[in-house]
Amino acid sequence: MKTTTADADADLRAHEPDTREHVWSLHVLGTGAASAVDLGSSGAVLERDGVPMLLVDCGPGTLEHYLRNYRTQPSAVFITHGHMDHVAGLERLFHAAWFNPAQRGRIKMFMHANLMPILQARVADYPGAIAEGGANFWEGFWLIPCSRGFWLDGWWFDVFATRHHVPGTSFGVALRGCFAWTGDTRPIPEVLSCVTDDHTLVAHDCALIGNPSHTGVADIEREYPAELRARLLLYHYGSEADAQILRERGFKVAVPDGRYPLHVPQPVRAEAG
Ligand SMILES: [Zn+2]
User: Fold this and answer.
1) Tens digit of pLDDT for each residue in 17-58?
2) CA 3 – ligand 1 centroid, Å
3) Which domains does the chain show, CATH number per domain?
4) pTM over 0.85
């Protein structure tokens, strides 16, 4: 079929970011460490004008929480890493997608390519994705492996390595000038300085006490400059009492189901990738 200049222009526009005035926000669904079940599995939704754009992580209960809020399945998901408190909901999401002809193979599933063998083993390799047969697990999704980042609705999202267990197995996501979600990590000041700016809200793993795979508040105070500490939104803590202590130390701490206003992101062109 012949492609006209008008067709090409329309196609280009469809892939350009919509820079009109929109209200961007980060809806934090859950804020808990793996054992803090009452606070919900850590995960969040990037919203534009209240419409969900990207779900980050899908742990136990995340999909149910999402459906209660938005009455529809997510159209795009980013997975930070393969721990079960971040991916246990993927089997339910697969079933929801597979048995809905309008959704099957249409939910964009972004993850760093390094996670492919891990997620294959953790959630995809169970014999017989459905009892009736005829279903391949990944066929339920539109799987988009990435490395440096990915495009979604014309916006470039940076994907960055975090420090959590084995190197190269855990990743955060950032939309420049808007937000960054670290996923599980130790402090990564050198990374965050590359993917955030003065306007970026940085949602960061933080408990009262750090350990070899998670950040503690003393780590935050030691590793990050005041300018960055002021932009942090802490999550992945152990209890509401812990959250209160973090607040008393001067930090903004996310609450389950909290919505946080974001700065309008700056369009980034392809060379950023
Ligand atoms: Zn983890």
Assistant:
1) 666 689 999 999 999 988 888 999 999 999 999 999 999 999
2) 47
3) 21-262 (3.60.15.10)
4) yes
